[in-house]
Write a structure and sequence with these properties.
The complex is a heterodimer. Helix content of chain A is about 70%, strand content about 0%. Chain A has a two-stranded antiparallel sheet with strand order 1-2. Chain B starts with 18 loop residues before the first helix and ends in a 7-residue tail after the last helix. The radius of gyration of chain B is 27 Å and the shape is globular. The C terminus of chain B is likely disordered. Chain B has a single domain, classed as MetI-like (MetI-like fold). By secondary structure, chain B is mainly alpha-helical. Chain B is built from twelve helices and no strands. Classes of the chains: A mainly alpha, B mainly alpha.
Chain lengths: ~350, ~300
Amino acid sequence: MSIDREHGAPPPVQAAIPVVPATEEKSSTSSAPLSAVREFLNARGSGRIADNSFAALMLICACSIFLIVLFIFWILIKNSHLSLVAFGWKFFTREAWDPVSGDFGALPFIYGTLVTSLLALAMAVPLALGVAIFLTELCPRPLRAPISFLSELLAAIPSVVYGLWAVFVLVPLMRDTIGPFLVKILGWTGLFEGANFGVGLLTASIILAIMILPIISSLTRDIMRAVPDSQREAVLALGATRWEMIRIGVLRNSRIGIVGAVMLGLGRALGETMAVTMVIGNHPDIGKSLFAPGYTLASVIANEFSEATGDLYYSALIEIGLALFLVTIVVNAIARLMVWAVTRGAPARTS
Amino acid sequence: MSTRPIQVQPLDDPRKPSRANVARRMIADHIVSGLAILATILVLAPLAAILFYLLYKGASSLNLAFFTHVPAPVGEEGGGMANAILGSGVILALASLMGIPVGIAAGVYLSEFGRGKFLGNAIRFTADVLNGVPSIVMGISIYSLVVKPQHHYSALAGGIALAIMMIPTVTRTTEEMLATVPLAVREAALGLGVPKWRTALSVSLRTASPGIITGCMLAFARVAGETAPLLFTAFGNQFWSFRLDEPIAALPLQIFAYAISPYDEWHRLAWAGALVLIALIMISVTLVRIFANRGMLKGGS
């Protein structure tokens, strides 16, 4: 009964009275043309203004993310204008870095950044894959939660603490133990020549590898978990061993996502500042030896920005920041698209 | 593919599973399992080493003076980081005040209004990309925006830099948490005549609030240890400072400055600072998680 009456109320205000059947109105106190419910609703207002303004407020906040990115881009371009005009594209291929005579080129920093990031990836990716395989396929259930918690704890440690540890633990270790060992084993490659101070490209790569490991391994774990169990069961049913199941059923299905995860790690490694600055040696040189001190894009900014004298010096540093910004954005964008393609249950991959 | 007839293999096919072949496959299986376990141990080893050194070196140099004194001049014993702990608190409070509301609002837009729209997807993607922008780039951008026109470093600039770093994380976690609220709950509220803004605020957000609070805490923990954006914005300070328009000390900055200094006394303080920083981050995250799970901050459902 009461349900019937409420069914009568919802029609639009303008058409309410003529349309509503008379049989349903008899129970209510409607001698006037408007029902009580309708009167109440009319008095209450539609709330459209509140709704629209709320939606607009949320939209403004959401668009602020766009604005932030655009704004960073704009301010970097504006402030590096001087150096952009003075050196042009050659800025990125020149080796000079001479603040006194105002001659700047970013090649040593690009070299240092690429070498440390790629070396770090070379160390971190196999380990991260191993951890992800262990956690998704091999690990006994009670161990799973603590180990993933611990590897995520690794991600929560601030970069400056990694740097502190590297300066006081890793650097002496490299100087006295690992360095001489590497010279003895791999000295013939020529990559480990020259004096070994403990600080240098190799040490920076190792600390970078430790820092990007948790990111790559936790993403890879999520991606491997997204592979449906039916794939695993199918491969196992054909008589595969566990490794063959992982290789054929899991890794092959998730390879796009794994590449994406690796690229996210690369993006992080390219922009990592504090820990690298503390152990890389900070010397703008391009040398073959991995023991040699180097410099990265991020660490040159961290070290020299606050003492940049002169507008050209300042804008050259900002231009380095601009390059870093653009490169990490491209790397991250590609990586995100790859990870999304897998974890969003995208079209089945046939191959 | 499935219609292709299965190729008939002769019975004496040399590829049939021989004992040697099975043994090879089993050995490969065991080797890979062993490598995976070894990799896990190798990954956990540095974590154990870092935590061990933090506790070993940090705890031995912690004392009451660390929490009550400002840094001592070079050559003098003692001194602490009281001003840096306070400064970090001020900067983080500023960053949270600016970053969290904007982040949550953006998350609400993505989840409640922008679902499936092109604009929503574009914003989601931009947030993910912004998340990966190096923190040092944030530092120099805010320097160029705030510090350079004003001609002095300030706590406010540091807060803005950290707030920008918080926004994408908060947005994405808010959106993910709101997505877990069942549609039926929203429909129930809308069916009772509750306007949409009220539904979003008191039904969706309230239901998802424990997860959102955890997300905010994770963003907080992430920026709490950030050093690079503060180098050219908050700059650091050796003395007490509460003012927002003056350089202010921060714990990560102080650790960095002491770690690269040549004095043993300062190295000791750097370890203590690192231990305190990690402890503060862990404690704040754990506390909020406990409260969020207990229901003190928990909404309906």
